[in-house]
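Handout, page 2. Input:
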Amino acid sequence: MNFHKLLTPFLASILMLFCAACNRENNDVNADGTISYNLKPFDGPFSNPHKGFTVPTSGTWVFAPEFEYGPYGSLKNGAWNLVSYGSGYQQWNKLNPAKGVYDWSELDKLLAALAEHNMGYALRVLPYTSSFVRAADTPEENYDWTPRFVYEMGAKKITVDIRGTDFKAVAPVWDDPIYIQAAKDFATALAQKYDGDPRIEYIDIRTFGNWGEWHTSQLLGSKMPSDDILKDMIKHYASVFKKTQLVLPSNGFGDVYTYALSLGVTKRDDGFIGIPGRDDTLQRAYRANLPTIAENIAGYATMLTYNDLIPGGNRKWTPELWEQSIRNAHLTYYVLDQDNDCGYRFYQENKALADKMSKILGYNFTVAKAEFSTHTNTLNLTIKNTGLAPCFFDVYLVAEFTDNTGETLVQIGETIRIPKGTFKDDTSQDFSFKLNAELPSEYQIALSLYESEDAYTKGKNPTVRFDNEGIAENNKLLLKR
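Output:
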């Protein structure tokens, strides 16, 4: 009898069983042929598009190495690891120097620089700021940013006292019909230029008041227009901006706020932390399925000096109050710090807390479960939004087989579109992808989130990341076997 011939099949079968056991151990293959993947959350600060933190980005000089607080500055400012978009103001008279004449050149340069760094821009166009009234003879053009031609056409202006100073200044008559029409004409031109521009995160309607915030508290003698005029301006903006998110300034309250929400215009608050209850007011926008936006009442260093025990005073900044307010308002966007050091001191002193909050501002997608059935060639996923708000843009979910280098072998099933505002915070959704092609002999699974289906079909890298360990350099999440 040839024992060698009998032994060989026996050893082969033993070897196959051993390999199968190893395969189950390495890939967690269940008895039904299902591979279960171990998934861990990403450890560290986390930023994603159309949500999160911003810092002042007033010009392209922010990205120059000479700016020590910038992303390439000598201080190696870690706050930039959290920043997902830029923000700042533009002067109305600079963008609209003459009737029917518009100069977008400097703004376009800033938008291009931000886009190169994968950042959008939150735009505010201001008509006025008392901040630059610093002497009795301060030139009007230094603080009144209403274009000169508006006054030349007959719009009225008045003399006002600047609260807390001995200075007088001039200010527009905010309900003057010539002023209002000029402001509407500018809004129309702005929409023709930038509505739907992917580089614009949102646009504040900053037509009236000091800093365009819809109040005149520092301008003694100046009065805001009636609610009907305010609503009419909101209506005009909403009629010309069909795609870009519009924002009601901090002091838009009451019926004006209700009307804005009815037109899809959301709310920001610039008295955050310092003024009690401001986080509560933003909940109305959250309940209307719109993003909420906040900026502290002052810079971080200043807020540390506040004493909320003083009647009528502003509340002091504390870590507990900061986190509580962010959660209560369900914030999507937040100014990390408004001082010129771009959050440098704030991040140094509050790094762990800021990193934590970067993961919950707005949406935050985490793959909670991933299983692939080798019997049916089906990938089943459970994804949870662990953030504070829905995702306010369409997102496209793609599953692929890739090789060990991450190169695509074949797409698994079809691309799945998740419409904006539908993936609510603190909820989970299940997704299935069935392979309609031959299973590759060697593979790993990659998951991706795109801002458009076209971006995937053109071979671009995804811009949205999952909050999981295993993110490749191209932003795809690799479920390694």
